[in-house]
Amino acid sequence: MSHHGVEDANSETRPLLDGLNVNTQSSFHGSGAVLSGYWPTPSPRSPHIAFGSGTMAPPLVGLRPGNADPPAERETDQDRGFVGTSARKRAKFTLPFIIISYFMGYMPSMVIMNPYIYDRIAEEYNHRINTSSQVPCGKDMNNVTGNATAKGIQEAIERRVSTLELYLSLTTYLSAILPILFLGPFTDKLGRKAGFLLPMSATLGKQVVYIIVIMRELPLPLLYLAHGIEALGGSFAAILSAMFSVTSDVTQPGNERSGWIAVMEALQTLAASLGQVIVAQWMRFGYLHPLIYALAFCCLGLFLTIFVLPETNASASRNGLNDLTTPSDVNQGRCFGLVSTCWKTVRTSFALYGSKSMAQASSGNNLRILSKRRLCLAIFILTVAVNFSRPGVETLFQLKYPLCWPATKVYTFSGLRIFLSWVVILCALALMQKLFKMADRHICTVGIISSILTNAALSLSVNSVMVYEAAVVGVMTRSIIPMLRSILSSLVPQDHQGAMYSSLSCVESFGASVFSTISNRIYYVTLSSWAGLIFMIFACIMILALILIIILNVLFVKETPRCQEDQRQSGNIQADREDQSA
Protein backbone atom coordinates (compact mmCIF):
# COMPACT_ATOMS: atom_id res chain seq x y z
CA MET A 1 0.00 0.00 0.00
CA SER A 2 1.20 3.51 -0.75
CA HIS A 3 2.67 5.65 2.04
CA HIS A 4 1.02 8.86 0.84
CA GLY A 5 -1.48 8.62 3.71
CA VAL A 6 1.38 8.38 6.21
CA GLU A 7 3.09 11.40 4.73
CA ASP A 8 -0.12 13.40 4.87
CA ALA A 9 -0.77 12.44 8.47
CA ASN A 10 2.76 13.43 9.51
CA SER A 11 3.20 16.57 7.45
CA GLU A 12 2.92 18.76 10.55
CA THR A 13 5.35 16.88 12.81
CA ARG A 14 7.92 15.59 10.25
CA PRO A 15 10.25 18.64 10.31
CA LEU A 16 10.40 18.44 14.07
CA LEU A 17 11.20 14.74 14.08
CA ASP A 18 13.87 14.69 11.38
CA GLY A 19 17.29 14.04 12.73
CA LEU A 20 16.15 12.86 16.16
CA ASN A 21 17.40 9.51 17.39
CA VAL A 22 14.88 8.62 20.05
CA ASN A 23 14.03 5.29 21.63
CA THR A 24 10.40 4.84 22.55
CA GLN A 25 8.50 2.04 24.19
CA SER A 26 4.86 1.56 25.08
CA SER A 27 4.09 1.80 28.75
CA PHE A 28 1.09 -0.39 28.03
CA HIS A 29 2.81 -3.69 27.28
CA GLY A 30 1.41 -5.74 24.44
CA SER A 31 -0.68 -2.99 22.91
CA GLY A 32 1.96 -1.18 20.94
CA ALA A 33 0.54 2.08 22.24
CA VAL A 34 1.81 4.91 24.37
CA LEU A 35 -0.65 5.94 27.06
CA SER A 36 1.11 9.12 28.09
CA GLY A 37 -0.84 11.39 25.77
CA TYR A 38 2.12 11.96 23.41
CA TRP A 39 2.07 9.83 20.31
CA PRO A 40 5.49 9.70 18.56
CA THR A 41 4.77 9.41 14.84
CA PRO A 42 7.40 7.91 12.52
CA SER A 43 8.69 10.10 9.74
CA PRO A 44 9.48 8.45 6.38
CA ARG A 45 12.62 10.61 6.27
CA SER A 46 13.81 9.43 9.70
CA PRO A 47 14.10 5.62 9.40
CA HIS A 48 16.45 5.45 12.37
CA ILE A 49 13.60 6.16 14.83
CA ALA A 50 12.86 2.75 16.33
CA PHE A 51 9.73 1.93 18.31
CA GLY A 52 9.71 -0.50 21.20
CA SER A 53 13.48 -0.51 21.57
CA GLY A 54 14.03 0.66 25.12
CA THR A 55 12.61 2.95 27.73
CA MET A 56 10.13 5.69 27.07
CA ALA A 57 11.78 8.89 25.97
CA PRO A 58 10.68 12.36 27.07
CA PRO A 59 8.13 14.09 24.86
CA LEU A 60 9.55 15.05 21.50
CA VAL A 61 9.98 18.62 20.42
CA GLY A 62 6.80 19.85 18.81
CA LEU A 63 4.59 16.98 20.00
CA ARG A 64 1.89 18.59 22.06
CA PRO A 65 -0.56 17.17 24.62
CA GLY A 66 -4.24 16.97 23.83
CA ASN A 67 -6.58 19.76 24.91
CA ALA A 68 -3.88 21.91 26.47
CA ASP A 69 -3.94 25.67 26.23
CA PRO A 70 -3.01 27.04 22.78
CA PRO A 71 -0.58 26.60 21.17
CA ALA A 72 -0.01 23.35 23.09
CA GLU A 73 -3.49 22.10 22.37
CA ARG A 74 -3.13 20.26 19.08
CA GLU A 75 -2.62 16.66 20.04
CA THR A 76 -1.36 13.77 17.96
CA ASP A 77 -1.98 10.07 18.26
CA GLN A 78 -0.75 6.93 16.56
CA ASP A 79 -0.56 6.94 12.81
CA ARG A 80 -3.75 6.09 10.91
CA GLY A 81 -2.18 6.50 7.49
CA PHE A 82 -2.80 2.91 6.41
CA VAL A 83 -6.38 3.91 5.54
CA GLY A 84 -6.27 5.32 2.04
CA THR A 85 -7.26 8.87 1.28
CA SER A 86 -10.11 7.78 -0.99
CA ALA A 87 -11.49 5.44 1.68
CA ARG A 88 -11.38 8.22 4.26
CA LYS A 89 -13.21 10.61 1.95
CA ARG A 90 -15.84 8.00 1.06
CA ALA A 91 -16.35 7.15 4.74
CA LYS A 92 -16.77 10.83 5.64
CA PHE A 93 -19.36 11.17 2.87
CA THR A 94 -21.28 7.96 3.60
CA LEU A 95 -21.31 7.95 7.40
CA PRO A 96 -23.71 10.93 7.77
CA PHE A 97 -26.30 9.26 5.54
CA ILE A 98 -26.06 6.02 7.52
CA ILE A 99 -26.53 7.86 10.80
CA ILE A 100 -29.48 9.85 9.45
CA SER A 101 -31.12 6.66 8.17
CA TYR A 102 -30.67 4.83 11.46
CA PHE A 103 -31.99 7.55 13.76
CA MET A 104 -34.86 8.44 11.46
CA GLY A 105 -35.82 4.77 11.77
CA TYR A 106 -35.02 4.50 15.46
CA MET A 107 -37.11 7.42 16.74
CA PRO A 108 -40.71 6.49 15.73
CA SER A 109 -41.05 3.63 18.20
CA MET A 110 -39.42 5.73 20.92
CA VAL A 111 -41.86 8.61 20.34
CA ILE A 112 -44.89 6.37 20.01
CA MET A 113 -44.18 4.28 23.12
CA ASN A 114 -45.33 6.81 25.73
CA PRO A 115 -48.56 8.10 24.11
CA TYR A 116 -49.53 4.61 22.91
CA ILE A 117 -49.15 3.15 26.40
CA TYR A 118 -50.95 6.20 27.82
CA ASP A 119 -53.90 5.71 25.46
CA ARG A 120 -54.16 1.98 26.14
CA ILE A 121 -54.15 2.52 29.91
CA ALA A 122 -56.50 5.54 29.72
CA GLU A 123 -59.09 3.32 28.02
CA GLU A 124 -59.59 1.62 31.37
CA TYR A 125 -60.70 4.90 32.97
CA ASN A 126 -63.61 7.32 32.50
CA HIS A 127 -63.00 9.15 29.20
CA ARG A 128 -65.33 11.95 30.23
CA ILE A 129 -62.74 12.93 32.84
CA ASN A 130 -59.48 12.01 31.13
CA THR A 131 -59.55 11.29 27.41
CA SER A 132 -56.14 10.45 25.94
CA SER A 133 -52.54 11.53 25.53
CA GLN A 134 -53.71 14.24 23.13
CA VAL A 135 -56.11 15.71 25.71
CA PRO A 136 -54.53 14.77 29.05
CA CYS A 137 -56.51 17.20 31.25
CA GLY A 138 -60.24 17.49 31.77
CA LYS A 139 -62.08 20.81 31.63
CA ASP A 140 -62.50 20.99 35.40
CA MET A 141 -58.74 21.02 35.89
CA ASN A 142 -58.58 24.58 34.60
CA ASN A 143 -60.47 25.80 37.65
CA VAL A 144 -58.53 27.48 40.43
CA THR A 145 -59.13 24.61 42.81
CA GLY A 146 -59.11 21.96 40.10
CA ASN A 147 -61.02 18.73 40.06
CA ALA A 148 -59.69 16.29 42.64
CA THR A 149 -61.14 13.25 40.91
CA ALA A 150 -59.75 14.19 37.49
CA LYS A 151 -56.32 14.94 38.96
CA GLY A 152 -56.34 11.66 40.83
CA ILE A 153 -57.15 9.71 37.67
CA GLN A 154 -54.45 11.54 35.72
CA GLU A 155 -51.86 10.80 38.38
CA ALA A 156 -52.92 7.14 38.48
CA ILE A 157 -52.49 6.88 34.71
CA GLU A 158 -49.10 8.58 34.84
CA ARG A 159 -47.91 6.23 37.59
CA ARG A 160 -48.84 3.17 35.54
CA VAL A 161 -47.32 4.62 32.39
CA SER A 162 -44.09 5.55 34.14
CA THR A 163 -43.81 2.09 35.69
CA LEU A 164 -44.29 0.23 32.39
CA GLU A 165 -41.91 2.61 30.61
CA LEU A 166 -39.36 1.98 33.33
CA TYR A 167 -39.49 -1.79 32.88
CA LEU A 168 -39.29 -1.50 29.09
CA SER A 169 -36.26 0.77 29.39
CA LEU A 170 -34.57 -1.63 31.79
CA THR A 171 -35.20 -4.46 29.34
CA THR A 172 -33.36 -2.54 26.64
CA TYR A 173 -30.53 -0.84 28.47
CA LEU A 174 -29.52 -3.50 30.99
CA SER A 175 -29.64 -6.30 28.41
CA ALA A 176 -27.68 -4.19 25.91
CA ILE A 177 -24.64 -3.76 28.15
CA LEU A 178 -22.88 -7.01 27.18
CA PRO A 179 -23.42 -6.60 23.40
CA ILE A 180 -22.15 -3.03 23.62
CA LEU A 181 -19.17 -4.07 25.71
CA PHE A 182 -17.99 -6.67 23.21
CA LEU A 183 -19.05 -4.98 19.98
CA GLY A 184 -16.46 -2.20 20.22
CA PRO A 185 -13.48 -4.56 20.62
CA PHE A 186 -14.91 -6.79 17.88
CA THR A 187 -14.91 -3.85 15.50
CA ASP A 188 -11.24 -3.31 16.34
CA LYS A 189 -10.59 -6.86 15.13
CA LEU A 190 -13.23 -7.63 12.48
CA GLY A 191 -13.95 -4.15 11.16
CA ARG A 192 -16.29 -1.26 11.77
CA LYS A 193 -19.15 -2.53 9.61
CA ALA A 194 -20.08 -5.15 12.20
CA GLY A 195 -20.67 -2.31 14.64
CA PHE A 196 -23.43 -0.96 12.38
CA LEU A 197 -25.04 -4.13 11.04
CA LEU A 198 -25.93 -5.79 14.34
CA PRO A 199 -27.74 -2.84 16.03
CA MET A 200 -29.47 -1.88 12.77
CA SER A 201 -30.84 -5.41 12.34
CA ALA A 202 -32.00 -5.49 15.97
CA THR A 203 -33.78 -2.13 15.65
CA LEU A 204 -35.47 -3.42 12.50
CA GLY A 205 -36.77 -6.39 14.49
CA LYS A 206 -38.09 -4.09 17.21
CA GLN A 207 -40.10 -2.07 14.69
CA VAL A 208 -41.66 -5.27 13.31
CA VAL A 209 -42.85 -6.34 16.78
CA TYR A 210 -44.30 -2.87 17.45
CA ILE A 211 -46.19 -2.99 14.16
CA ILE A 212 -47.69 -6.38 14.99
CA VAL A 213 -48.73 -5.31 18.51
CA ILE A 214 -50.40 -2.12 17.27
CA MET A 215 -52.10 -3.75 14.28
CA ARG A 216 -53.59 -6.59 16.32
CA GLU A 217 -54.01 -4.60 19.57
CA LEU A 218 -52.11 -7.30 21.41
CA PRO A 219 -51.35 -7.09 25.15
CA LEU A 220 -48.82 -4.44 26.13
CA PRO A 221 -46.40 -6.93 27.80
CA LEU A 222 -45.49 -8.16 24.30
CA LEU A 223 -43.53 -4.93 23.92
CA TYR A 224 -40.91 -6.53 26.18
CA LEU A 225 -40.09 -8.81 23.24
CA ALA A 226 -39.47 -5.81 20.99
CA HIS A 227 -37.13 -4.18 23.49
CA GLY A 228 -35.35 -7.47 24.15
CA ILE A 229 -34.61 -7.89 20.44
CA GLU A 230 -33.23 -4.38 20.27
CA ALA A 231 -31.04 -5.03 23.31
CA LEU A 232 -29.34 -7.96 21.55
CA GLY A 233 -27.88 -5.51 19.05
CA GLY A 234 -26.78 -2.93 21.61
CA SER A 235 -29.45 -0.37 20.64
CA PHE A 236 -28.45 3.21 19.80
CA ALA A 237 -25.39 3.12 22.08
CA ALA A 238 -23.75 0.49 19.86
CA ILE A 239 -24.38 2.66 16.80
CA LEU A 240 -22.76 5.62 18.54
CA SER A 241 -19.74 3.50 19.45
CA ALA A 242 -19.29 2.43 15.82
CA MET A 243 -19.92 5.96 14.55
CA PHE A 244 -17.26 7.55 16.75
CA SER A 245 -14.80 4.72 16.03
CA VAL A 246 -15.10 5.40 12.30
CA THR A 247 -14.77 9.13 12.98
CA SER A 248 -11.52 8.52 14.88
CA ASP A 249 -10.25 6.32 12.04
CA VAL A 250 -10.61 9.04 9.42
CA THR A 251 -9.69 12.21 11.34
CA GLN A 252 -6.61 13.71 12.95
CA PRO A 253 -6.76 14.33 16.71
CA GLY A 254 -7.26 17.92 17.79
CA ASN A 255 -9.69 20.43 16.35
CA GLU A 256 -10.40 18.27 13.29
CA ARG A 257 -11.47 15.30 15.39
CA SER A 258 -13.39 17.29 18.01
CA GLY A 259 -15.11 19.16 15.19
CA TRP A 260 -16.10 15.95 13.42
CA ILE A 261 -17.24 14.34 16.67
CA ALA A 262 -19.41 17.38 17.39
CA VAL A 263 -20.77 17.37 13.84
CA MET A 264 -21.64 13.66 13.99
CA GLU A 265 -23.19 14.04 17.43
CA ALA A 266 -25.18 16.98 16.10
CA LEU A 267 -26.18 15.09 12.98
CA GLN A 268 -27.54 12.08 14.85
CA THR A 269 -29.36 14.39 17.24
CA LEU A 270 -30.79 16.50 14.43
CA ALA A 271 -31.93 13.37 12.59
CA ALA A 272 -33.55 12.10 15.77
CA SER A 273 -35.22 15.45 16.46
CA LEU A 274 -36.50 15.71 12.89
CA GLY A 275 -37.90 12.20 13.11
CA GLN A 276 -39.46 13.11 16.44
CA VAL A 277 -41.22 16.18 15.02
CA ILE A 278 -42.50 14.24 12.00
CA VAL A 279 -43.84 11.38 14.11
CA ALA A 280 -45.34 13.78 16.68
CA GLN A 281 -47.50 15.34 13.98
CA TRP A 282 -48.15 12.06 12.18
CA MET A 283 -49.32 10.07 15.21
CA ARG A 284 -52.42 12.25 15.52
CA PHE A 285 -53.76 10.14 12.65
CA GLY A 286 -52.53 6.80 13.97
CA TYR A 287 -49.46 4.96 15.19
CA LEU A 288 -49.02 2.38 12.43
CA HIS A 289 -47.83 4.39 9.43
CA PRO A 290 -44.90 6.09 11.23
CA LEU A 291 -43.56 2.64 12.09
CA ILE A 292 -43.73 1.53 8.46
CA TYR A 293 -41.78 4.65 7.55
CA ALA A 294 -39.25 3.65 10.21
CA LEU A 295 -38.81 0.23 8.60
CA ALA A 296 -37.92 1.85 5.29
CA PHE A 297 -35.17 3.97 6.87
CA CYS A 298 -33.72 0.97 8.71
CA CYS A 299 -33.49 -0.93 5.43
CA LEU A 300 -31.81 2.07 3.77
CA GLY A 301 -29.21 2.21 6.53
CA LEU A 302 -28.42 -1.48 6.13
CA PHE A 303 -28.02 -1.06 2.37
CA LEU A 304 -25.60 1.86 2.73
CA THR A 305 -23.54 0.03 5.34
CA ILE A 306 -23.20 -3.17 3.33
CA PHE A 307 -22.62 -1.76 -0.14
CA VAL A 308 -21.29 1.80 0.20
CA LEU A 309 -19.41 2.32 3.49
CA PRO A 310 -15.70 1.40 3.15
CA GLU A 311 -13.81 -0.39 5.90
CA THR A 312 -11.86 2.20 7.88
CA ASN A 313 -10.08 -0.17 10.25
CA ALA A 314 -6.95 -0.99 8.25
CA SER A 315 -5.86 -4.03 10.27
CA ALA A 316 -9.36 -5.52 10.08
CA SER A 317 -9.60 -4.95 6.33
CA ARG A 318 -6.32 -6.81 5.86
CA ASN A 319 -6.83 -9.69 8.28
CA GLY A 320 -10.15 -9.71 10.10
CA LEU A 321 -12.63 -10.81 7.44
CA ASN A 322 -10.11 -13.12 5.78
CA ASP A 323 -10.24 -15.33 8.88
CA LEU A 324 -13.79 -16.28 7.99
CA THR A 325 -12.70 -17.85 4.71
CA THR A 326 -10.21 -20.32 6.25
CA PRO A 327 -10.97 -24.05 6.72
CA SER A 328 -13.39 -24.77 9.55
CA ASP A 329 -10.87 -26.33 11.95
CA VAL A 330 -8.47 -23.41 11.61
CA ASN A 331 -11.34 -20.93 11.62
CA GLN A 332 -12.70 -22.37 14.86
CA GLY A 333 -9.38 -21.89 16.60
CA ARG A 334 -9.13 -18.34 15.30
CA CYS A 335 -12.64 -17.56 16.49
CA PHE A 336 -11.74 -18.68 20.01
CA GLY A 337 -8.60 -16.61 19.78
CA LEU A 338 -10.63 -13.64 18.58
CA VAL A 339 -13.04 -13.92 21.52
CA SER A 340 -10.10 -14.18 23.92
CA THR A 341 -8.42 -11.17 22.35
CA CYS A 342 -11.63 -9.13 22.49
CA TRP A 343 -12.13 -10.02 26.14
CA LYS A 344 -8.61 -8.81 26.87
CA THR A 345 -9.42 -5.63 24.99
CA VAL A 346 -12.57 -5.18 27.09
CA ARG A 347 -10.48 -5.44 30.24
CA THR A 348 -7.98 -3.04 28.71
CA SER A 349 -10.67 -0.44 28.04
CA PHE A 350 -11.53 -0.34 31.73
CA ALA A 351 -7.87 -0.53 32.75
CA LEU A 352 -7.38 2.74 30.89
CA TYR A 353 -9.52 4.42 33.52
CA GLY A 354 -8.73 2.64 36.77
CA SER A 355 -5.95 0.03 36.75
CA LYS A 356 -3.86 0.38 39.92
CA SER A 357 -1.14 -1.89 38.54
CA MET A 358 -0.91 0.23 35.39
CA ALA A 359 -0.67 3.41 37.47
CA GLN A 360 2.10 1.96 39.63
CA ALA A 361 4.09 0.90 36.60
CA SER A 362 3.54 4.13 34.73
CA SER A 363 5.64 7.23 34.56
CA GLY A 364 4.59 10.44 36.25
CA ASN A 365 3.20 11.75 32.99
CA ASN A 366 1.06 8.64 32.58
CA LEU A 367 -0.28 9.13 36.09
CA ARG A 368 -1.42 12.62 35.11
CA ILE A 369 -3.09 11.26 31.99
CA LEU A 370 -4.80 8.56 34.07
CA SER A 371 -6.16 11.24 36.41
CA LYS A 372 -7.54 13.15 33.43
CA ARG A 373 -9.24 10.05 32.07
CA ARG A 374 -10.85 9.35 35.43
CA LEU A 375 -12.12 12.91 35.71
CA CYS A 376 -13.52 12.81 32.17
CA LEU A 377 -15.24 9.51 32.90
CA ALA A 378 -16.75 10.84 36.13
CA ILE A 379 -18.09 13.94 34.35
CA PHE A 380 -19.40 11.72 31.55
CA ILE A 381 -21.28 9.52 34.05
CA LEU A 382 -22.86 12.52 35.78
CA THR A 383 -23.90 14.01 32.44
CA VAL A 384 -25.40 10.71 31.30
CA ALA A 385 -27.27 10.49 34.61
CA VAL A 386 -29.03 13.76 33.79
CA ASN A 387 -29.34 13.68 30.00
CA PHE A 388 -30.71 10.14 29.79
CA SER A 389 -33.04 10.43 32.78
CA ARG A 390 -34.62 13.76 31.93
CA PRO A 391 -36.65 13.02 28.73
CA GLY A 392 -38.95 10.43 30.29
CA VAL A 393 -39.90 12.44 33.37
CA GLU A 394 -40.01 15.67 31.38
CA THR A 395 -42.66 14.21 29.08
CA LEU A 396 -44.85 13.22 32.03
CA PHE A 397 -44.18 16.60 33.68
CA GLN A 398 -45.46 18.45 30.61
CA LEU A 399 -48.51 16.21 30.25
CA LYS A 400 -49.42 16.79 33.89
CA TYR A 401 -51.49 19.63 35.31
CA PRO A 402 -50.93 22.63 35.25
CA LEU A 403 -49.11 22.50 31.87
CA CYS A 404 -51.48 19.91 30.33
CA TRP A 405 -49.59 19.78 27.03
CA PRO A 406 -50.92 17.26 24.48
CA ALA A 407 -48.46 14.58 23.38
CA THR A 408 -48.11 16.15 19.93
CA LYS A 409 -47.00 19.45 21.46
CA VAL A 410 -44.65 17.70 23.89
CA TYR A 411 -42.71 15.86 21.20
CA THR A 412 -42.84 18.69 18.66
CA PHE A 413 -41.40 21.09 21.22
CA SER A 414 -38.73 18.58 22.24
CA GLY A 415 -37.69 17.93 18.64
CA LEU A 416 -37.55 21.61 17.72
CA ARG A 417 -35.63 22.43 20.90
CA ILE A 418 -33.00 19.79 20.12
CA PHE A 419 -32.76 20.90 16.50
CA LEU A 420 -32.31 24.58 17.32
CA SER A 421 -29.91 23.77 20.16
CA TRP A 422 -27.57 21.95 17.81
CA VAL A 423 -27.74 24.74 15.25
CA VAL A 424 -26.62 27.13 17.99
CA ILE A 425 -23.98 24.68 19.27
CA LEU A 426 -22.41 24.20 15.84
CA CYS A 427 -22.26 27.95 15.23
CA ALA A 428 -20.92 28.58 18.74
CA LEU A 429 -18.39 25.77 18.36
CA ALA A 430 -16.98 27.28 15.19
CA LEU A 431 -16.84 30.69 16.83
CA MET A 432 -15.26 29.52 20.09
CA GLN A 433 -12.68 27.24 18.46
CA LYS A 434 -11.68 29.40 15.51
CA LEU A 435 -12.00 32.90 16.91
CA PHE A 436 -11.45 32.53 20.66
CA LYS A 437 -9.21 29.42 20.42
CA MET A 438 -11.11 27.73 23.24
CA ALA A 439 -10.11 24.19 24.17
CA ASP A 440 -12.66 21.37 24.28
CA ARG A 441 -12.71 21.41 28.07
CA HIS A 442 -13.69 25.10 28.11
CA ILE A 443 -16.63 24.45 25.79
CA CYS A 444 -17.58 21.54 28.03
CA THR A 445 -17.63 23.92 31.01
CA VAL A 446 -20.04 26.23 29.17
CA GLY A 447 -22.32 23.27 28.48
CA ILE A 448 -22.34 22.19 32.13
CA ILE A 449 -23.30 25.69 33.30
CA SER A 450 -26.09 25.72 30.72
CA SER A 451 -27.36 22.37 32.03
CA ILE A 452 -27.45 23.65 35.60
CA LEU A 453 -29.49 26.70 34.62
CA THR A 454 -32.03 24.86 32.47
CA ASN A 455 -32.78 22.17 35.06
CA ALA A 456 -33.13 24.71 37.86
CA ALA A 457 -35.48 26.83 35.72
CA LEU A 458 -37.58 23.84 34.65
CA SER A 459 -38.07 22.70 38.24
CA LEU A 460 -39.91 25.98 38.95
CA SER A 461 -41.96 26.10 35.73
CA VAL A 462 -45.73 26.41 36.15
CA ASN A 463 -46.65 27.68 32.67
CA SER A 464 -45.52 27.34 29.07
CA VAL A 465 -43.51 30.57 29.03
CA MET A 466 -41.30 29.35 31.87
CA VAL A 467 -40.71 26.07 30.02
CA TYR A 468 -39.61 28.02 26.93
CA GLU A 469 -37.26 30.15 29.03
CA ALA A 470 -35.71 27.02 30.53
CA ALA A 471 -35.09 25.72 27.01
CA VAL A 472 -33.32 28.94 26.00
CA VAL A 473 -30.84 28.92 28.89
CA GLY A 474 -30.13 25.23 28.24
CA VAL A 475 -29.16 25.67 24.61
CA MET A 476 -25.53 24.55 25.13
CA THR A 477 -26.31 21.49 27.26
CA ARG A 478 -25.78 18.94 24.51
CA SER A 479 -22.24 20.10 23.79
CA ILE A 480 -20.94 18.36 26.94
CA ILE A 481 -20.80 14.76 25.75
CA PRO A 482 -19.12 15.32 22.34
CA MET A 483 -16.45 17.48 23.98
CA LEU A 484 -15.78 14.77 26.57
CA ARG A 485 -15.51 12.18 23.79
CA SER A 486 -12.98 14.36 22.01
CA ILE A 487 -10.88 14.88 25.14
CA LEU A 488 -10.84 11.16 25.94
CA SER A 489 -10.07 10.29 22.32
CA SER A 490 -6.91 12.39 22.49
CA LEU A 491 -5.83 10.56 25.67
CA VAL A 492 -6.26 7.02 24.30
CA PRO A 493 -4.12 5.21 21.67
CA GLN A 494 -5.52 4.88 18.17
CA ASP A 495 -5.68 1.07 18.31
CA HIS A 496 -7.94 1.27 21.38
CA GLN A 497 -10.38 3.88 20.06
CA GLY A 498 -13.09 1.26 19.46
CA ALA A 499 -12.69 -0.17 22.96
CA MET A 500 -12.77 3.31 24.47
CA TYR A 501 -15.96 4.30 22.65
CA SER A 502 -17.45 0.92 23.53
CA SER A 503 -16.80 1.54 27.22
CA LEU A 504 -18.45 4.96 26.96
CA SER A 505 -21.46 3.42 25.23
CA CYS A 506 -21.61 0.81 27.99
CA VAL A 507 -21.64 3.63 30.54
CA GLU A 508 -24.44 5.29 28.57
CA SER A 509 -26.54 2.14 28.48
CA PHE A 510 -25.94 1.20 32.11
CA GLY A 511 -26.39 4.78 33.26
CA ALA A 512 -29.60 5.15 31.28
CA SER A 513 -31.05 2.09 33.00
CA VAL A 514 -29.89 2.84 36.53
CA PHE A 515 -30.36 6.60 36.64
CA SER A 516 -33.64 6.57 34.73
CA THR A 517 -34.92 4.05 37.28
CA ILE A 518 -33.94 6.32 40.16
CA SER A 519 -35.37 9.46 38.56
CA ASN A 520 -38.55 7.63 37.59
CA ARG A 521 -39.11 6.54 41.19
CA ILE A 522 -38.35 10.02 42.54
CA TYR A 523 -40.89 11.53 40.14
CA TYR A 524 -43.37 8.80 41.13
CA VAL A 525 -43.04 9.70 44.83
CA THR A 526 -43.05 13.51 44.42
CA LEU A 527 -45.76 13.63 41.75
CA SER A 528 -48.46 14.95 44.09
CA SER A 529 -46.26 17.35 46.09
CA TRP A 530 -43.56 18.91 43.86
CA ALA A 531 -43.25 17.24 40.47
CA GLY A 532 -40.35 19.54 39.53
CA LEU A 533 -38.12 18.35 42.38
CA ILE A 534 -36.38 15.84 40.12
CA PHE A 535 -35.11 18.65 37.87
CA MET A 536 -33.63 20.49 40.86
CA ILE A 537 -31.82 17.26 41.73
CA PHE A 538 -30.49 17.18 38.16
CA ALA A 539 -29.16 20.72 38.64
CA CYS A 540 -27.33 19.65 41.81
CA ILE A 541 -25.76 16.70 39.97
CA MET A 542 -24.45 19.04 37.28
CA ILE A 543 -23.00 21.34 39.95
CA LEU A 544 -20.87 18.38 40.99
CA ALA A 545 -19.87 17.92 37.33
CA LEU A 546 -18.90 21.61 37.24
CA ILE A 547 -16.55 21.10 40.19
CA LEU A 548 -14.90 18.16 38.42
CA ILE A 549 -14.45 20.03 35.13
CA ILE A 550 -12.78 22.87 37.04
CA ILE A 551 -10.33 20.35 38.52
CA LEU A 552 -9.70 18.95 35.04
CA ASN A 553 -8.96 22.45 33.74
CA VAL A 554 -6.49 22.98 36.57
CA LEU A 555 -4.66 19.76 35.63
CA PHE A 556 -4.33 20.90 32.01
CA VAL A 557 -3.15 24.36 33.02
CA LYS A 558 -0.52 22.92 35.37
CA GLU A 559 0.75 20.56 32.69
CA THR A 560 1.39 23.29 30.12
CA PRO A 561 4.59 24.59 31.85
CA ARG A 562 5.79 21.00 32.22
CA CYS A 563 5.31 20.37 28.50
CA GLN A 564 7.22 23.52 27.62
CA GLU A 565 10.05 22.56 29.99
CA ASP A 566 10.18 19.04 28.50
CA GLN A 567 10.36 20.54 25.03
CA ARG A 568 13.22 22.85 26.07
CA GLN A 569 15.12 19.96 27.67
CA SER A 570 14.60 17.81 24.58
CA GLY A 571 15.80 20.68 22.41
CA ASN A 572 18.92 21.10 24.57
CA ILE A 573 19.69 17.38 24.30
CA GLN A 574 19.35 17.57 20.53
CA ALA A 575 21.63 20.62 20.40
CA ASP A 576 24.26 18.80 22.49
CA ARG A 577 24.10 15.84 20.10
CA GLU A 578 24.60 18.10 17.12
CA ASP A 579 27.60 19.76 18.84
CA GLN A 580 29.12 16.38 19.61
CA SER A 581 28.62 15.16 16.05
CA ALA A 582 30.19 18.36 14.74
Descriptive overview:
It is built from 21 helices and 2 strands. The chain has 582 residues and is mainly alpha-helical. The chain folds into 2 domains: 1-63, no CATH class; 88-339 and 370-563, Growth Hormone, Chain: A (Up-down Bundle), CATH 1.20.1250.20. A two-stranded parallel sheet has the order 1-2. Helix 12 (328-354) crosses helix 20 (497-526). It starts with a helix and ends with a helix. The model is unreliable at 1-81, 320-330 and 356-364 (pLDDT under 50).
List the helices and strands and how they pair.
Blueprint: H1 4-9, H2 14-17, E1 23-24, E2 50-51, H3 85-122, H4 148-175, H5 177-190, H6 193-216, H7 223-232, H8 235-249, H9 255-282, H10 288-307, H11 314-320, H12 328-354, H13 356-361, H14 364-387, H15 390-399, H16 407-435, H17 440-459, H18 464-473, H19 480-490, H20 497-526, H21 533-581
Parallel strand pairs: 1-2
Helix pairs in contact: 3-4, 3-6, 3-8, 3-9, 3-10, 4-7, 4-20, 5-8, 5-11, 5-12, 5-20, 6-7, 6-8, 6-10, 8-9, 8-20, 9-16, 9-19, 12-20, 14-19, 14-20, 14-21, 17-18, 17-19, 17-21
